[in-house]
Design brief:
Blueprint: E1 3-14, E2 17-28, E3 32-36, H1 43-50, E4 58-63, H2 68-75, E5 79-82, H3 94-102, H4 111-117, H5 132-144, E6 150-154, H6 162-177, E7 181-185, H7 189-195, E8 198-203, E9 206-212, H8 213-219, E10 222-228, H9 234-240, E11 245-249, E12 252-255, H10 261-274, E13 278-285, H11 288-296
Parallel strand pairs: 3-7, 3-8, 5-6, 6-7
Antiparallel strand pairs: 1-2, 1-4, 8-9, 10-12, 10-13, 11-12
């Protein structure tokens, strides 16, 4: 089985509000897979269907070879989940919670080692009194205690300080190295770009693009930033440069193109003719955040709040 998750044409509505509208994706085995999208895109609804917590109105989904809506009991021992709304007994301490959860699985990680990994070793505070970052760390530990084949991590670093965030990244990468498939949702584009092997971007209830991370950032191209000494005559510049550009400041432009000899010559000719010296010329690879904004800007519905 190459794909641990296969979803095709999932649709789901709540009281007439469309949450999923033909949602389709495939998640290959053994990778960190990023599920990205603006608030209200449908990510949480899709994950809940994959976990058997909700049933789609139509479409098909397979998780570890089973229909989660009908046979989740068959895959439950192989799946972990860290969702935004935990449900951990607030009276338990971290070690007690991990001991309880480990009893639900046929195999489990060493509790002491896991407490060290999430920096909760020696923390004897009840769950209700944990800080936001500590509570997130405990939720992550509970999601992976059973050595899952597949784990869903919904915004795992929310509320964490930079040190805890880095530690969590290392734990997630370690899961992949040991064969666990990780489905990660996050609003932190640097986190997704650094961790994810493949990414699907969701907007208005459907996947609008799915690709490996490097190809996704390359597909949207490079950007050239040019800064002149003085304000620019845009009409004159437009007649000289054969590329689309946008003005970012009175004396700066951004060109959506790869650097080339022709472009350099056109910039140089303009600068010479206008007696307006170029003081900065930079070729920038677009980042995942740029890709995300460009691909979702026309698909965001400000009135849609069903996650």
């Amino acid at each position: 089985m190459n794909n641990v998750i296969q979803a095709e044409g999932l649709r789901k509505s709540y009281s007439g509000e469309i949450a999923l509208d033909g949602f389709s994706l495939s998640v290959p085995k053994g990778m960190i897979f990023g599920l990205l999208g603006p608030n209200g895109a449908g990510k949480t609804t899709a994950i809940e269907i994959m976990l058997g917590l909700r049933v789609s109105d139509s479409g098909n989904v397979s998780v570890l070879g089973e229909n989660p809506g009908k046979n989740f009991h068959l895959i439950a021992p192989k799946v972990g989940a860290m969702l935004q709304e935990g449900g951990i007994n607030p009276g338990l301490k971290p070690r007690e919670a991990l001991k309880l959860y480990s009893s639900f699985y046929p195999q489990s990680l060493d509790i002491d080692e896991l407490l060290v990994q999430v920096d909760l070793k020696g923390v004897n505070t009840n769950v209700r009194r944990l800080s936001g970052g500590q509570a997130q760390s405990l939720s992550l530990a509970l999601a992976v205690i059973g050595k899952p084949e597949l784990v869903f991590l919904d915004e795992p670093t929310v509320g964490m300080d930079p040190r805890a965030r880095r530690r969590t990244w290392e734990l997630i990468k370690n899961l992949r190295e040991h064969g666990t498939t990780v489905v990660l949702t996050t609003h932190l584009m640097d986190e997704a770009e650094m961790l994810c092997d493949e990414i699907a971007i969701v907007s208005k209830g459907k996947v609008i693009v799915q690709s490996d991370t490097k190809s996704l950032t390359k597909a949207i191209g490079e950007e050239i930033e040019v800064e002149f000494e003085k304000p620019i005559d845009l009409e004159r510049l437009n007649s000289v440069i054969g590329y689309d550009f946008r003005q970012t400041q009175a004396n700066c432009i951004s060109i959506g193109a790869q650097s080339s000899t022709l472009l350099l010559k056109q910039i140089a000719d303009f600068a010479h003719e206008e007696e307006n010296m170029v003081i900065r010329y930079a070729s920038l690879n677009k980042k995942l955040e740029d890709v995300f904004f460009e691909m979702t800007s026309e698909n965001v519905d400000p009135e849609m709040d069903t996650e």
